[in-house]
């Protein structure tokens, strides 16, 4: 599907929401590789008693960049958290949001 076909089927706002969702909870080939890496790491860690060096999912991801985990930022104030999320989605200067 081309970009113009995609935009003909969904709105720009919906596409932006999907992009934000992918930042929070990635999908696609990297996600599948990571899930398989989890299974491999659990199996390897269970097979050695005790494991000499605990394995992590990234040990079993063969292709692509090694991605560092980003636990994000959690603020105590939900209104400020919403503003931060909106600013990360659309960081253009001068953009103001009401949370």
Describe the 3D structure.
The protein has 99 residues and is mostly helical. It has 2 domains: 66 residues, no CATH class; 29 residues, no CATH class. The relative contact order is 0.10.
Order of helices and strands: HHHH
**What is the mean predicted local confidence, pLDDT?**
80
Shape: flat
- How many H/I helices? 4
Tell me the count of domains.
2
In percent terms, what proportion of residues is strand? under 5%
Oligomeric status of the shown chains? single chain
Number of strands: 0
Terminal Cα span: 35 Å
Which class of secondary structure composition applies to the elements?
Answer: mainly alpha
What is the topology?
Layout: H1 3-9, H2 12-24, H3 29-47, H4 78-89
Task: Give keywords.
single chain; about 100 residues; mainly alpha; 2 domains; 4 helices; flat
Provide a quick synopsis of the model.
This protein has about 100 residues and is mainly alpha-helical.
């Amino acid at each position: 599907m081309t970009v113009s076909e995609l935009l003909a089927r969904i709105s720009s706002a919906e596409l932006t929401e999907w992009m934000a969702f992918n930042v929070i909870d990635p999908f696609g080939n990297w996600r599948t590789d990571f899930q398989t890496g989890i299974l491999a790491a659990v199996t390897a860690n269970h097979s050695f008693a005790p494991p000499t060096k605990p394995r992590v999912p990234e040990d079993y991801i063969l292709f692509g960049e090694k991605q560092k985990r980003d636990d994000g930022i959690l603020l105590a104030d939900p209104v400020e958290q919403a503003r931060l999320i909106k600013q990360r989605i659309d960081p253009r200067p001068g953009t103001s949001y009401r949370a």
